[in-house]
Amino acid sequence: MENIIKVYTYAVADLLHIGHLRAFRQAKALGDYLIVGILTDEATAVYKRIPIIPFEERCAMVQSLKCVDEVVRQDSLDPTENLKKYRPDILTHSHGENGEFPGNPDLSLVKKAVRTEYYPHQSTTRIINKIRKTKNK
What we know:
Helix content is 33%, strand content 19%. With 137 residues, it is of the alpha/beta class. The chain has a single domain (6-135), classed as HUPs (Rossmann fold, 3-Layer(aba) Sandwich), CATH 3.40.50.620. The radius of gyration is 15 Å and the shape is globular.
C-alpha cells in the first residue's frame, strides 16, 4: 500500500444511522483507504452504555458500506494503539467534547487530524429515545 493515503476513524456504530454514514464518507473523501475502528462492547461500556447491537454485527454492518475498506477492533476509546498498528496518514472523528478527539489519542502518530462534520439531526441516543417515547404511547 505504497503512496496511498490511509485514513483512520473510529466509532461505536451502534444502531447504524445516517450520521455514521456521513462521517465515514467524509473520512473516505480525505484519502484512498479508510480503516474504521469499531469499539468493543467493553470499551464502549467504560464511557457510555453497553451497545444494543453486538460487536461482531456492528463490524459486519460497517464493513458492508462501500466507503469502508477495512474494519478493525478497537479495544479502548483511545485509538492510539491502532494508530501505531495501522499507521494511517490521517485520523478523523466527527464528535467529541470541546473539539477533542475522544480518548485523547497521540496525534503525533498521524500527519493530520481532521474533525469531520458532526450530523446533529440523528444519533443513537435520539433513536433510543424515540423508541421509548413511541412505546409509552
